[in-house]
């Protein structure tokens, strides 16, 4: 546990996860569509990308790619789709006769699933690491 957090990559990963958990909750609970929402949303997306990228080389629990690495295959596309829909709507609205479709509902859906996955992974990490933390405290 200590080596995970004390390593620079682990520290970056952990910091980005804390930022994403806090900012994601604020984004989902606050008013949508204004500049503050967009800034917080971009912060959430960047922190989620940092989490996913830094998670790939972290293998110190088992020495191999594990179950948490498979979550990247769910988290990364969900996060990218959460930002894809508002960006595509913004750019396509500048085109004549564009049909934006239901981008808002898609954005909402993928953002929530991204955050649900983040919280689920946090709970799983705590459940995996808590016994070793408790043993180390004794």
Structure description:
It holds the Pfam family DUF2306. InterPro entries: DUF2306_membrane. This is DUF2306 domain-containing protein. The chain crosses the membrane at residues 12-29, 41-59, 65-87, 108-128. This protein is an all-alpha fold. It has one domain (1-137). The chain has six helices and no strands. The chain has helices at 2-6, 8-29, 35-55, 67-70, 72-92, 103-137. The two termini are 15 Å apart.
Count of helix runs? 6
What best-fitting shape do the alpha-carbon axes yield? elongated
The multimeric state of the shown protein is: single chain
| Percent of sequence in beta strands | under 5%
Number of separate structural domains = 1
Integer average pLDDT: 84
Low-confidence stretches: none
Protein name: DUF2306 domain-containing protein
Transmembrane segments: 12-29, 41-59, 65-87, 108-128
Pfam families: DUF2306 (PF10067)
Keywords: Membrane, Transmembrane, Transmembrane helix
């Amino acid at each position: 546990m200590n080596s995970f957090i004390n390593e620079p990559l682990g520290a970056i990963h952990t910091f980005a996860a804390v930022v994403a958990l806090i900012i994601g909750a604020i984004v989902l609970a606050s008013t949508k569509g204004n500049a503050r929402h967009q800034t917080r949303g971009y912060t959430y997306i960047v922190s989620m990308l940092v989490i996913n990228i830094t998670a790939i080389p972290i293998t110190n629990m088992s020495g191999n790619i594990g179950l948490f690495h498979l979550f990247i295959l769910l988290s990364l596309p969900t996060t990218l789709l959460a930002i894809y829909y508002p960006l595509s709507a913004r750019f396509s609205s500048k085109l004549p006769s564009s049909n934006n479709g239901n981008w808002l509902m898609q954005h909402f859906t993928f953002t929530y699933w991204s955050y649900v996955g983040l919280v689920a992974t946090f709970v799983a990490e705590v459940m995996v690491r808590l016994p070793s933390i408790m043993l180390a405290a004794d």
